[in-house]
Design brief:
The protein contains 21 helices and two strands. The radius of gyration is 23 Å and the shape is globular. The longest helix has 49 residues. It has one domain: Sodium/glucose cotransporter. A two-stranded antiparallel sheet has the order 1-2.
């Protein structure tokens, strides 16, 4: 698909603006606390939109619409699970984690928080966390690079390797420079752009199809496939699979995606960075509305996209889309087919925004794990300047490895995100929940849970018999991790007096005032 000069200008201009913000962040970040946590100075809007934009990534504009396009409405259970998980994460975890992470020695990363939560000088829990984060965020970052490659190839007509290289360089450049504060401010901009783009496209699709019912009936004819998939009578059913059977496994697995939120380091760190825990209620409202609207719109992009392409007057467009061979390009295709050139450039920038808003956060969290939770443990006297450059060097190393993983042109954004989301959610979700609410939990229990959750996902995704059940690996792995934590914790000792003191300190109403006075 060819684009005119206005589309290209809008797209390139956006990338330049984002890089400029990265340079601003480079000049502003004075130390690792600024680079990794923004000095705990985020406001309600920045925290809310940044947390959700860093979560959704290109998956929201590519993976989800693509799966709904060919799989029907049963695929929307993933969106429903994510919406419920988002709300519960803000309701249950956000405020308590903000207070606990500060009460536990002003921890600036999740691994550091866990070490201080269990009052141990042993680096074991931090090292285990860092390894898990490094492994699964490599895959997560690779998914962003894969999405970027598809986007740049669609815009510029370059081949996969060329597109992958361009996208990776843009993402790496401003993450390397800017750090957490720049990432959060760009996430705010990118989150609002994603919101607008997702709302506009379904509205335009409806306006351009005079008879939705006739278009759907056309889609049911046996000779009209979309990306090789046949549309059936059950396409719009939320509870029936394409063959008419009850989609129990699909529904349960879709809802299980919501469990992942409790263990996503790049989201949890936003809770730790907000200026004041009292701001979280407002952030929760903003985040919940943003997530509901964007997920619903992404589902509609897939469903209405199927209708649009099967409208008899769009037969040529259906053939053109099928020639692309990838359902995950439906949002890009609809935008470029329906909107004016300049707007198309802005809409395509929203996809770049979605990809960058997650990749930058993943690179930053991985960098913090290596620097703060590996290097700093063995080099306690390292200067802030040294730590900053180790952090930026880690961004480059991780990005290069993720780039190599993303070289597989047959991989999909949805597939890569699904694997990484399950691994992180199962490894950290149970640990974070119990560390905040269960005083009897111990450090050996936490380590057992992290290892069990991460390993269970790897095994489930690797063994064909288990994978072919259709059950999302996050669900059994999350349950196994919970059991491991409880069993090992009950079998090991805990200093109840220290734990009680920490929990009481975290509950104190004046903790925010104490923190502000110290600053």
């Amino acid at each position: 698909m060819k684009f005119n000069v206005y589309t290209i200008i809008a797209f390139v201009l956006y990338a330049v603006i984002i890089l400029a913000i990265g340079i601003w962040g480079f000049l502003k970040a004075k130390g690792t606390k600024d680079y990794f946590l923004g000095g705990r100075q985020l406001g309600s809007w920045t925290t809310a939109i940044s947390a959700q934009a860093s979560d959704m990534s290109g998956w929201l504009l590519m993976g989800l619409p693509g799966s709904v396009l060919v799989g029907g409405m049963t695929q929307s259970w993933v969106a429903i699970g994510l919406f419920v998980g988002t709300y519960l994460n803000w309701l249950i975890v956000a405020k308590r984690l903000r207070k606990m992470s500060y009460a536990a020695g002003d921890a600036i990363t999740i691994p550091e928080y866990l070490q201080k939560r269990f009052f141990t000088k042993s680096p074991v829990v931090r090292l285990v966390c860092a390894v898990i984060i490094f492994f699964f965020f490599l895959i997560y970052t690779a998914s962003a690079f894969n999405g970027g490659a598809k986007l740049f190839g669609f815009v510029f007509g370059t081949n996969y390797i060329q597109s992958l290289t361009i996208g990776a360089l843009v993402i790496i450049s401003y993450t390397f420079l800017g750090g957490f504060l720049a990432v959060c401010w760009t996430d705010l901009i990118q989150g609002m752009l994603m919101f607008a783009a997702l709302v506009v496209v379904p509205i335009v699709v409806v306006a351009r199809v005079p008879d939705l019912g006739a278009a759907f009936q056309n889609a049911l004819s046996e000779d009209t496939l979309i990306c090789g998939s046949q549309i059936t009578d059950y396409y719009w059913s939320f509870v029936r699979a394409p063959d008419g059977s009850l989609a129990v496994t699909t529904i349960v697995s879709g809802l299980a995606w919501g469990l992942g939120y409790f263990g996503m380091p790049h989201i949890l760190v936003r809770f730790m960075a907000i200026k004041n825990s009292d701001m979280i209620k407002k952030s929760r409202l903003i985040a919940t509305i943003w997530v509901f609207v964007t997920l619903a719109a992404a589902v509609l992009v897939g469903g209405l996209g199927m209708i649009f392409l099967h409208d008899p007057q769009n037969a040529e467009l259906l053939a053109e889309f099928n020639a692309l061979g990838e359902s995950e390009k439906i949002f890009m295709f609809l935008s470029s087919s329906l909107l004016p050139s300049l707007i198309v450039g802005v809409i395509l920038s929203a996809i770049l925004a979605a990809i960058m808003s997650t990749a930058d956060s993943q690179l930053l969290v991985t960098s913090s794990a290596v620097t703060n939770d590996m290097f700093k443990i063995f080099k306690k006297d390292a200067s802030e300047k040294t730590l900053m450059w180790i952090s930026r060097g880690t961004v480059l190393v991780v990005a290069v490895i993720a780039y190599l993983i993303a070289l597989d042109e047959n991989s999909t954004v949805m597939g890569l995100v699904s694997y990484a989301w399950a691994g992180l959610g199962a490894a950290f979700g149970p640990v974070m929940l119990l560390s905040l609410f269960w005083k009897r939990m111990t450090m050996p229990g936490a380590v057992a849970g992290i290892i069990t959750g991460g390993a269970a996902v790897i095994i489930w995704e690797s063994v064909e018999v288990l994978k072919n059940t259709g059950v999302y690996s996050l669900l059994p792995a999350f349950a196994l991790a919970l059991v491991a934590i409880i069993v090992v914790s009950l079998a090991t000792k805990v200093d109840r007096a220290q734990v009680d003191e920490l929990f009481e300190k975290a509950k104190a109403h004046d903790l925010d005032q104490v923190e502000n006075a110290e600053k």
